[in-house]
Amino acid sequence: MIIVMKHGSTQENVDKIVEVLKAHGLGANLSTGAQATIIGVLGDKSRLADANLELMDGVEKCVPIMHSYKLASREMCPDGRVAEVGGQRIGGKQLVLMAGPCAVESEEQILEAAQGVKAAGATFLRGGAYKPRTSPYAFQGMEDEGFKLLRKAADATGLKVVSEVISHDQIDTAAKYCDMFQVGARNMQNFRLLREIGRSKVPVLLKRGIASTIEEWLDAAEYIMSEGNYNVVLCERGIRTFETATRNTLDVSAVPVVKERSSLPIIIDPSHAAGKSRYIESLSLAGIAAGADGLIIEVHPEPKVAMSDAAQQLTIPEYQALVKKVGAVAAAVGRELPC
Amino acid sequence: MIIVMKHGSTQENVDKIVEVLKAHGLGANLSTGAQATIIGVLGDKSRLADANLELMDGVEKCVPIMHSYKLASREMCPDGRVAEVGGQRIGGKQLVLMAGPCAVESEEQILEAAQGVKAAGATFLRGGAYKPRTSPYAFQGMEDEGFKLLRKAADATGLKVVSEVISHDQIDTAAKYCDMFQVGARNMQNFRLLREIGRSKVPVLLKRGIASTIEEWLDAAEYIMSEGNYNVVLCERGIRTFETATRNTLDVSAVPVVKERSSLPIIIDPSHAAGKSRYIESLSLAGIAAGADGLIIEVHPEPKVAMSDAAQQLTIPEYQALVKKVGAVAAAVGRELPC
Amino acid sequence: MIIVMKHGSTQENVDKIVEVLKAHGLGANLSTGAQATIIGVLGDKSRLADANLELMDGVEKCVPIMHSYKLASREMCPDGRVAEVGGQRIGGKQLVLMAGPCAVESEEQILEAAQGVKAAGATFLRGGAYKPRTSPYAFQGMEDEGFKLLRKAADATGLKVVSEVISHDQIDTAAKYCDMFQVGARNMQNFRLLREIGRSKVPVLLKRGIASTIEEWLDAAEYIMSEGNYNVVLCERGIRTFETATRNTLDVSAVPVVKERSSLPIIIDPSHAAGKSRYIESLSLAGIAAGADGLIIEVHPEPKVAMSDAAQQLTIPEYQALVKKVGAVAAAVGRELPC
Amino acid sequence: MIIVMKHGSTQENVDKIVEVLKAHGLGANLSTGAQATIIGVLGDKSRLADANLELMDGVEKCVPIMHSYKLASREMCPDGRVAEVGGQRIGGKQLVLMAGPCAVESEEQILEAAQGVKAAGATFLRGGAYKPRTSPYAFQGMEDEGFKLLRKAADATGLKVVSEVISHDQIDTAAKYCDMFQVGARNMQNFRLLREIGRSKVPVLLKRGIASTIEEWLDAAEYIMSEGNYNVVLCERGIRTFETATRNTLDVSAVPVVKERSSLPIIIDPSHAAGKSRYIESLSLAGIAAGADGLIIEVHPEPKVAMSDAAQQLTIPEYQALVKKVGAVAAAVGRELPC
Fold first, then answer.
1. Number of folded domains in chain B?
2. Partner of D282 for a Cys bridge, out of A256, B97, B188, D179, CB 3.0 to 4.6 A?
3. What is the CATH number of the domain that holds C10?
4. Residue C75 lies in a domain
5. Is residue D42 part of a domain?
6. Once rounded to an integer, what is the mean pLDDT over residues B130-156?
């Protein structure tokens, strides 16, 4: 951390700060410029948790230099981490393809979706059993019954199950049916949920909050990892901006930034980013070209009758056509489809 | 809802939609213009939950006309609602003043804070027992012990307690110590928490999510109210924008917008909006002048040693001076301090 | 400026940087911590304009410490500047009240507006002669004829004229009719226009760009001041965010931030921030309570027939009622209406 | 346009509006629902420019249905437009590759850059002669001398020249040296400049404003096209959001949205979006995969000594390596490099 002193601060101000640093077992490095005096803090800044230097007399501001996450950082694992989910690996040369409807609606619907996306090359079946909805009057999902149907459809087709948990008290039940938990955008900073999922050791897909910075997202991953669960996969699903042409704005730059700062795999959710099925192809190909490790896409046997997010779900033939194009772009950037 | 047809859509497309509307017990009103055909949907659109008109052939887009919240709307209670918290009323001519430290740190600290803010004119004591923090390595609060100390300090000084609950399984315990629950910005769309607080019937201070629209905020209030708890007070605490001079951007316009669309009282949290104690006075006075029903402000006996959010907490003398100025502005807009 | 070295950078990397600094006549102060080496740059960093330290081997990032504006800074004029416009002072105890229609539409309209706002207590008449419009097909203003009508109406009522110039080649003509130029939000970084207005020495009202940071805004003011024109008044008019309930989001925090960082007066434009006339009262009172030096408000004799921005213009009686309330809040914060 | 009436509006309110519409030669289609009455406006809404329906009694809001641009719309040219710049075509199967330094700094620098990017496969040389800079104290470019050096280097290597004009009075001079003008992000709504470039008939690269919606961008293109200049190419260069990991946030979704709404070609500027050279590859490949018609990239013979934007410029070997990868992704999506 660097402490920038105010124009006009006194030697006494500086001495006082150095004294506080010493009291916390930290060193100080003074840099007295023509325009400002700067104090570099030497040592482990976490010792300063209860010393609020920004409030001391003469201090202009404190500039953090290091990020607060450790296990999630690239430094801790320079070669990158590969998540393992029931024998499937996420983060290697092979892309991961997750697909399925927004919500589980019936046994027939989820089975038909599973068969369709499996045939297209997907290896994970997605489908919401618990649906967090903006309005209390909207369809909230089939709940536990949805988990069961997902499992059944996945087993029938040889897919893995990824599904959202929205509260920590669902973890035990959900763990019986899911291979991987999803933490939704609205819960990215539900720290109680993050910690309990960390303790469960179930692999997790961590979506980025709708207005979360990449740093906050990696701090959220750190909550899970600090409980001993390293099977974390990040999912960029669009951020909130002033632009309304798309439901959210896909931050495709998050791919190279995450690859640089973190060891965790990252996939793209073009469905929630776009909000309209006709933009999904462009965003999927962009994500893979940028270096993402896979895609999670909403696919429904009959989007027109879907009970939620209808406008952004692909039909099965559309998904099959998309996967072919994804394969071509993957090959162009040295990646390959799952086999 | 209005359905706008694509340029080039056919009569057959339109007929199909009208048919679907009829099948849902809804009427249609056609408006065939030179540039576009528009279909007005007549009746209760909630019946359309499983008909995804946007995906039907020939449809350009669907434009919602009505908002999705009802109990929280102004229409349902044109004179406005007044929340009742242990005999205190929020939303009438008298402002409510909530104050106290960011976090409860010790018995002495919270008692000193309580005495100071009481003397200044506050009627509610705030203080975090459970602190949601971006990093897992930061101070997370005194937890249940914090609730107890809050209650003790409040009882000793005649204040009401408002404190954050971060998970639905804390509600029973928290209800023993708190007069009012706070739902934090990160949990504004933790729907499980909202519903359970609704069922608890404990009055609630609902903070706006960091990137939530006013409509989403009112939908979140609707979650609580739809469970029978009408003692909801909204709290504007700044939104996330591109500007970094302040921690968040106080959306002072939310005050008149909420007053127009909703019957709920709204207060201002200048501390989290500003992030720096030296801007709090300006934002407090602005909020009251705009028509807010009160203020919640972070006050600490000794901010320099605070264990969290040190830079944004006022000292007790600063708070006392502020309340005087608030009183002057309140009088100028026909409001008054609590007595 | 501070240079943060990468984890793993070598002594050689550091030596190379120190050498480059010396070559530019600058000193270096090394701070070698457990986690990072930091180099404080001593001296006038503007000498580094052509040395791109961020690209040198081993450099993680460069952190600027000082802002780039000087004349606009608080440090240069700690007591604050008062702009002088034809005998009127902006920035002292008295507020400035600017008002008038969005656009000049006819001699009768502008005269009626001038008489109405003058009677209410305004001292400046506003009115667009040149209107920058999003679409080329929208009304673009009466142009030079508009300036003449403004002048005539102002002279008839004893008001000063403030009006927008949108291109540097209008300055000579506009200077004949205007007491103060307005630079609109879209032109805040039209540097050619800023420089020429600086040279013209005509007082200027500089609106904040729709997505400009406060730092960029002060840099824009610096463009004008660096040409010798110190009569600059800033105008906060709302920034672009994700919220759509208002046309823009009034950043009321900009008032205390500007007062801290800059010596320039700042006024509020609630009309463009709100976009709806029914929110203007709240925002006006909020701005004055926050410490702004005045208001610029759109007032039209008959808003329903206005040729632009109809929804956000007040009627003359509405404006008169508003000024009374502004006076009460002004008194509460130690300010007063112009006499 | 659709007019939504307030809950509680009267038949008289509606009659009055219908009357106003008739007075403007427009029809009305009433849709009386259980919750709201809606009036569809039939005919050319531009006739309503001076009727401010939103202010009429009983009106809740007006919802525009059609966009305001016509020449730039997809409807006007369903097969898409191909821009012609001195024999080069932009918008067909072949991508366009524009490259060169941020700023022209010397004859040697621009010639070396030209040779390097030409060898890599670029067909356009970029380079700023006039540089709009945030601070008045930063390097402002070589101005007209820069144009001359660009032309010379382009002629020596067989490249076309694209360079920014920042004021309409530079057009005549710039036209002698440039094959294509660039309108920078800060000038996207400098309507005077847009109109004059429209009249000049010189092909133009129109960058998106830093916080402009896609609709506003297409309206800006319409300004140019409405003067008879149809050789407009759009350039997405990142928008301003809350995320600070990159200089701006590349809105890659703008590619499919623009392709759907507009007939104009669109290219990507990954350099300004990323702000860091190490992210440029990811963003370039993402842009091409998404369907963009080309790339404009900052390339400098020696970025470390560049006089502006050093951190985001590629070296010539980096650019050459990038073009190879771009070629592979282009082939995967059915496009090809220029030959």
1. 2
2. A256
3. 3.30.70.1140
4. no
5. yes
6. 92
